[in-house]
Amino acid sequence: MKLLKERIPKLIDFGTVAGENGSIYFSEIGKDLPFAVKRVYYIVDVPVGSKRASHAHKKLDQVLVAIAGSFVVDITDGVKTWSFIMDDPGKAVLVPGGTWRTLHNFSKKAICLALASDVYDADDYIRDYDEFRRWKSE
Ligand code: T46
């Protein structure tokens, strides 16, 4: 089973089958998904111009996908930065633990689906960027 080894942000292709009556997208642990999903959440109704996240996770790995509309995911590990335009339900971004992420440039009716490697834990969040930099240097 292909599980998360490199903790580097990257795009993951979902499988897809398109037909005359619509399209279906899928992903399976060990094939495209590099971790076991323990939680699912989704973000909707983000006003145009608003941001989400702007925080880090210590351990949590996540996969984010724009299942409708579009948004941008900026990620940094404190040294390197990545930016992904999410506008395709067939492409997800892997956001590994130990990174700071900001979601912005939401289009109207955008939906961000998140697949997470663990249940909700408020103690896994770092919500202050200076604290994140200190934590990374420890
Ligand atoms: C992330 C970005 C992309 C829960 O009670 N359970 C949950 O599973 C989640 C995700 C949130 N909440 C509560 C915690 C807060 O009281 O919902 C409220 C809003 O959460 P938060 O301010 O963390 O929302 P975002 O959009 O800033 O961040 C979320 C995820 O929390 C985070 O893991 O990476 O989306």
Question: How would you characterize the overall build of this protein?
Answer:
Helices cover 7% and strands 46% of the residues. The protein has 1 helix and 12 strands. The strands form 3 sheets. A 5-stranded antiparallel β-sheet has the order 1-9-6-11-4, with no helix packed on it. A 5-stranded antiparallel β-sheet has the order 8-7-10-5-12. It is globular, with a radius of gyration of 15 Å. Bound molecules: dTDP-4-keto-6-deoxyglucose.
Strands, helices and their partners?
Layout: E1 10-13, E2 15-19, E3 22-26, E4 39-43, E5 52-57, E6 62-68, E7 71-76, E8 81-86, E9 91-95, E10 99-104, E11 111-116, E12 125-126, H1 129-137
Antiparallel strand pairs: 1-9, 2-3, 4-11, 5-10, 5-12, 6-9, 6-11, 7-8, 7-10
The protein binds dTDP-4-keto-6-deoxyglucose.
Task: Please provide a brief summary of the model.
The protein is mainly beta.
- Distance N to C terminus: 32 Å
SSE order: EEEEEEEEEEEEH
Are there runs of 5+ residues with pLDDT below 50, and where? none
Bound molecules: dTDP-4-keto-6-deoxyglucose
Biggest sheet layout: 5 strands, antiparallel
Rounded to an integer in angstroms, the radius of gyration calculated over CA atoms is 15 Å
Global shape:
globular
What is the total tally of β strands?
A: 12
Mean pLDDT: 95
Number of alpha- plus pi-helical segments? 1
As laid out across the biggest beta sheet, the strand order is 1-9-6-11-4
Structural class estimated from helices and strands: mainly beta
